[in-house]
């Protein structure tokens, strides 16, 4: 701006001189002309120095403003970080309190009656061969006879299988009611049913997830604490104490409600059950999707709605085989 202004002023000086030179030869003495020029030059110099001073002042004002903005921005960021930290601490404490409340509730409601309603109790009654069993009708719990598949071998046995994917002909893109009561074939692919999983996990339970990829490699994830709320509480998932070699990809789903194609209970603007084509404890949306679409070898890396476990193969690899199973925390083989 300064340079332009000076140039403009100088050009005016030149322009003012030119007509005199060209059109009418100067009648005034040379000295007068030079005086005018000199006085103009002095004016230009004065203006230039004023402009320079203004420029400097503006620059330092600007610097001050920028510095203040930067300081505010930093303070803002520090405050945001503090809020985030406080929020995460609060959520962690809240989670622990909920787990403790559940554990208290569980030990209070435990009776000899529900102690027989799983594969672990069959195991202690000397049924030690893996396979399909019928759990008797339970008057106390008001539960019907239930077919279950018991894994009596893995890591000491006593596991009630609650989910399996291995054949791929059964769709898992089902509605709330079907996930509530269960579907599929107990020897093939199935979901045991949210009501049954809720009943099984009223006693402190361990969840074990076994995974197999298309190269035949296997991994597992175990949660030392696992429970599912009742239907009124949307079968909300609580879990803790991960161990294993598959990665902790159910942790992201902790503290979330169950969602299906016709019930969006997730923590997302999106409808995760629709996007991921399953029923699951969707957050926003997944770090695992064990009830997703079964894709065969060759097709298994082309979609994000497959049977995924991000901690092992990421979001674009649909696994070949999955089993989810539970047994009581204090189980002794
Ligand atoms: Ca949603």
Automatic annotation (TrEMBL):
SMART domains: FBG
InterPro entries, per database record: FIB_ANG-like, Fibrinogen-like_C, Fibrinogen_a/b/g_C_1, Fibrinogen_a/b/g_C_dom
Annotated Gene Ontology cellular component terms: extracellular region
Location of this chain's protein in the cell: Secreted
Coiled-coil segments: 37-103
Chaperone as UniProt keyword: no
Keywords from the UniProt entry: Coiled coil, Disulfide bond, Glycoprotein, Secreted, Signal
All residue ranges annotated as the Fibrinogen C-terminal domain in the record: 110-330
Any one Gene Ontology BP term: blood coagulation
Name the record gives this protein: Fibrinogen C-terminal domain-containing protein
UniProt organism field: Salarias fasciatus
């Amino acid at each position: 701006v300064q340079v332009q202004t000076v140039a403009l002023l100088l050009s005016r000086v030149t322009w003012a001189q030119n007509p005199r030179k060209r059109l009418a030869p100067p009648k005034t003495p040379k000295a007068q002309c030079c005086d005018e020029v000199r006085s103009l030059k002095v004016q230009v110099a004065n203006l230039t120095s004023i402009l320079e001073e203004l420029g400097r002042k503006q620059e330092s004002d600007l610097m001050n403003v920028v510095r203040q903005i930067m300081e505010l921005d930093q303070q803002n960021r520090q405050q945001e970080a503090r809020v985030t930290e406080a929020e995460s601490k609060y959520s962690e404490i809240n989670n622990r309190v909920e787990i403790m409340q559940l554990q208290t509730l569980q030990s209070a409601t435990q009776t000899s009656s529900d102690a027989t309603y799983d594969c672990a109790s069959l195991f202690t009654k000397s049924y030690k061969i893996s396979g399909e069993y019928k759990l008797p009708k339970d008057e106390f719990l008001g539960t019907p006879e239930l077919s279950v598949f018991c894994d009596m071998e893995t890591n000491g046995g006593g596991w009630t299988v609650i989910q399996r994917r291995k054949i791929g002909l059964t769709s898992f893109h089902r509605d709330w009611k079907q996930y509530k009561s269960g579907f599929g074939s107990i020897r093939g692919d199935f979901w045991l049913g949210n009501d049954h999983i809720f009943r099984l996990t009223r006693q402190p339970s361990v969840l074990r997830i076994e995974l197999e990829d298309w190269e035949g490699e296997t991994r597992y994830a175990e949660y030392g604490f696992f429970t599912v709320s009742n239907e009124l509480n949307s079968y909300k998932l609580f879990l803790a104490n991960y161990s294993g070699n598959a990665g902790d990809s159910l942790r992201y789903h902790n503290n979330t409600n169950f969602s299906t194609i016709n019930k969006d209970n997730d923590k997302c603007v999106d409808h995760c059950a629709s996007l991921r084509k399953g029923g699951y404890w969707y957050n926003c949306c997944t770090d695992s999707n064990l009830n997703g679409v079964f894709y065969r070898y060759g097709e298994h890396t082309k979609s994000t709605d497959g049977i995924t476990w991000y901690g092992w193969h990421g979001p674009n690899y649909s696994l070949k085989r999955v089993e989810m199973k539970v047994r009581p925390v204090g189980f002794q083989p």
